[in-house]
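Session log. Operator J.P. requested a structure for one protein chain; no other inputs attached. Running the standard single-chain path with token output.
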Amino acid sequence: MITNTPDYKSYTRRQLLFIRYVSAILIDLTVLNLFNEYWDNVQISSFTISLLTAIVLQLMLQITFQIEHGVGSYLLKKGRKGLRFFSAWALLFSSKFVILWVLELLFADKIIFGGPFHGILAFIIVITVMLLTEGVMRWITNVALGGDKNVEADI
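Structure written below.
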């Protein structure tokens, strides 16, 4: 069956970003709810809270990446490659504490990350799985299914 679907160049940048972020939020939502169901260290009171958490997480992660890329670009222009690596690690690691604090402010006891180090280890594991899953889905879309690798560069 042949369909007349337009290629990605017929979409605007805003449309591509919308698709990308909605997909990422749905992936995050799925990961959160799987952890909620199968791991005692993640407890979320309702589906609505997990959806709101996925949205907040995606927003906070994107802000973190923008800050990291901005600081990294600045340090590379100054010729400080070693400092760039350390600052990226420090920003990405410390941001998890800020994100956890924001979730605590917004949802209080409706979402709980338990376990070692007051739940920070569980939270980092959840975030890592989310990012890996998003990356795998992007790879499947862009490479394995024959999509255009340049789409990533466009958005």
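Operator note: The chain has one domain: 13-135.
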